[in-house]
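Re: the pair you flagged

First of the two:
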Amino acid sequence: MDQNMRQQHMFRREYFGKSLAVLCGMFLIVLTIAIGAFLLAKGMLTFTQVHHSIGEFLFSSAWKPSDTEMGGGQVGAAIYIWGSILTCTLALVISVPFSLATAVFMTQIAPKLGERIIRPAVEISVRLLNYSLVFHLSFMAGSALSYSFLSSREYSTCRTASPYWQPASCSPS
């Protein structure tokens, strides 16, 4: 009877763990879709209310947005898109040969040395990269939130969080 109770307890714990993992996974999927829908809805306002074209957005490199509904600004993202593509390409050109060389060294040339020394070093570097990514994302989110609170309609005194961009309605001082 004691063995049967243990198996039922283990089954409940395992079922709870699987259910929790599925629930968290579903939450992340819904959250990702919600973020995408929010960005799509807010981004479409550039094309529907301010009347910029998709061609201008994709192929122009001039970025001088206007905060009026009449438009007048330029929202070219080509330079940012190409900068992202080139940065990713450069990162791949640098990292893929090192990754392949490390993998071959760890598995074929010196498996004992690779298991004892190189594998922990690789795992530590991956963790540091993840911590760095989380830090940068939280910093960007904090900056965006503070900017959105500072530039609300009640605080519209031509002061923004960025010293490089002022609304078009403000005259330079």
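Second of the two:
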Amino acid sequence: MANNSRVSAEAIHEMVAATQRPVDPTENVKELVRQGLKSERDLRLQANHYQELMDHLRMEHIKELRLAESQRIDAIRTVDVGNVTRAGEVAAAAAAALATQLEQSAVALRNQVEQTRITTADALLSALQPIQTDVAELRKVQFQQQGEKTQNVENTTSKRDLSENVRGYLTVCILVAGAIAGYLIHR
């Protein structure tokens, strides 16, 4: 222990001696300035390194954002294309349904027109039958009158008038029958 006390005492003695020596303050200031400049240079290098690192991270982040936005837009476009495709399918189905309905309506209308034509033809035939019978009778009367005309010269004028009247009646009957037939056919 004495050895340790001696070393300690000697170290203390040297320290006291060193403090008694005068130190040039310019050397001390130069050393502090040198250390300050070194620290400043180190801080500047670290700041530049930090800035480069931040720039690199910012660029990477911007790339990630662009990629994410591109993927989002692609997803939206995919949904839009799907919606357009679906709308086309729905429109095609609706068009097919309308075509089927139109065909069914056309068949029903054709059947109805045919039934109406048959009914109209029957009604026209029923309406024309008495007129045709009357016309045939008028012709018969006309032929009889012509035969009597050759026998009776005196009655020629009256028979001629009657024949003209019969022709007039016959013409009127034919016109009326034609008008009725035209009306019933086009109805």
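The first helix runs from residue 2 to 20.

-B.
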